């Protein structure tokens, strides 16, 4: 049976490639159809054509606005008969707006699973993502083959909206760790310490982390090809601020680091990997 996949950004394409590698027959769509080429998947002409051909469709889009557009655009997902079909949404959505997605899909007879993921392109290509899943148990059961193919673990957070909240809280740590590593590297360089040697040492000490493992070589080599862009982390940190606002609680490190990633737009590097925040500290 075919599986649908919509969204061929860096992460989406890595996930789609993993599914194909695991034997899934994919039918795919992206707003820029050229990004679908090279996968060896069937390319559909519209979101409606994808969900018409597939019992399960995966979304991996930039934000909630993009998901709503794919649902309601001309020949969008909800223009097709989705009775009994499942949409697995791996987009990092706004925790409040995600309820609208549940309502709109379920009102048309479909099932919606909120399933943002932890990890970027490298773990996605290896099936090592961590999936955060919220929604009905029935939707989760139907989604299991796909989730097990792209992820090493699925964390079940049944309450609607919970997965989206956990995702942005996780990304606060991701952003804070990366910014701290980048600032440490730039400070060490200014102090006359070799950047590669410094990061190797920090990776054995207080800097030891998955973020250091993932981003150390990018900072050392100046290779900021995007695995997870500055624009994406900035968007997620904005969602985090919205969560803190709703909870009427201050957000200290998260708010500061969000503004650092905002500087990437002013420098014209927001489409680069978020580890390019290093350039702000180094003065490049």
Automatic annotation (TrEMBL):
Entry keyword annotation includes Oxidoreductase: yes
SUPFAM superfamilies linked: 6-phosphogluconate dehydrogenase C-terminal domain-like, NAD(P)-binding Rossmann-fold domains
Pfam families the record matches: NAD_binding_11, NAD_binding_2
Catalytic-site annotation from UniProt: 167
Gene3D superfamilies per the UniProt record, alphabetical: N-(1-d-carboxylethyl)-l-norvaline Dehydrogenase, domain 2, NAD(P)-binding Rossmann-like Domain
Keyword Endoplasmic reticulum in record: no
GO-annotated molecular function: NAD binding; NADP binding; oxidoreductase activity
Keywords: NAD, Oxidoreductase
Stretches assigned to the 6-phosphogluconate dehydrogenase NADP-binding domain: 3-156
Top-level taxon: Bacteria
Domain 3-hydroxyisobutyrate dehydrogenase-like NAD-binding: 161-280
Protein name, as recorded: NAD(P)-dependent oxidoreductase
Provenance organism: Geovibrio thiophilus
């Amino acid at each position: 049976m075919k599986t649908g996949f919509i969204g061929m950004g860096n992460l989406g394409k890595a996930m789609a490639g993993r599914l194909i590698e695991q034997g899934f027959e994919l039918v795919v769509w992206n707003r820029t159809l050229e990004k679908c080429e090279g996968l060896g998947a069937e390319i559909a002409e519209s979101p409606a054509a994808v969900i018409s051909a597939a019992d399960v469709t995966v979304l991996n889009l930039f934000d909630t606005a993009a998901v709503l557009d794919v649902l309601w655009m001309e020949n969008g997902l909800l223009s097709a008969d989705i009775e009994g079909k499942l949409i697995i949404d791996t987009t990092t959505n706004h925790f409040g707006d995600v309820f609208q997605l549940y309502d709109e899909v379920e009102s048309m007879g479909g099932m919606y699973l909120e399933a943002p993921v932890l990890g970027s392109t490298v773990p996605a290509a290896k099936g090592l993502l961590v999936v955060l899943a919220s929604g009905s148990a029935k939707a989760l059961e139907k989604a299991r083959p796909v989730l097990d193919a792209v992820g090493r673990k699925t964390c079940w957070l049944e309450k609607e909206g919970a997965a989206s909240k956990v995702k942005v809280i996780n990304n606060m740590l991701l952003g804070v760790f990366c910014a701290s590593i980048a600032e440490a590297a730039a400070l060490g360089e200014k102090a006359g310490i070799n950047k590669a040697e410094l990061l190797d040492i920090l990776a054995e000490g207080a800097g030891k982390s998955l973020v250091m493992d993932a981003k150390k070589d990018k900072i050392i080599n100046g290779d900021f090809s995007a695995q997870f862009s500055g624009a994406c982390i900035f968007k997620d940190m904005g969602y985090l601020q919205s969560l803190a606002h709703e909870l009427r609680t201050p957000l200290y490190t998260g708010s500061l680091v969000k503004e650092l990633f905002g500087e990437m737009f002013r420098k014209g590097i927001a489409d680069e990997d978020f580890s390019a925040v290093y350039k702000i500290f180094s003065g490049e």
